[in-house]
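All the exercises in this workshop are built on plain-text protein records. A record pairs a protein's sequence with a compact description of its fold. The structure tokens are whole numbers drawn from a learned vocabulary of backbone shapes. Once this layout is familiar, the rest of the handout is easier to follow. An example says more than a description, so a record of this kind follows.
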Amino acid sequence: MKIADYLNPQLIAFLTEESRDEAIEALICLLDEKGKLQDKTAFREAIFHREGLVSTGIGMGIAVPHAKIPDIKEFFIAIGIQQQKGIEWNALDKAPVRIIFMIGGPEDKQAEYLQILSLLTSAIRDVDLRKKILKASSSQEVFLLFSSDS
């Protein structure tokens, strides 16, 4: 299992949004446009509900908003990259978020979900990988970073 198994270059976006809610909404709209969501409203509600429990800003400029709902059959990861100043996210380390990994998946596959989170957590600890993501000029370039490094 690799992170790239859950990625698609079409689900990687360079964001100009400056607020957490706008960035989340942009990624939800992208997922919906690309046919990943059966019920956009339910997914949005689940993402914002989770965010309301505790911030998904995990530090190092990274946020991992996520939701598991019955309508989703397979896990996916959308990536949002804010190359400018970052987004205030109320992250654990108080640093602005510049890379967002939005995970969606089925409710009944907790083991797979935990594996994805583990792989993602390991990958994003790599300072060089984070720098390469932020310097990337295309979604394909970001996709290839995960295809070769994870």
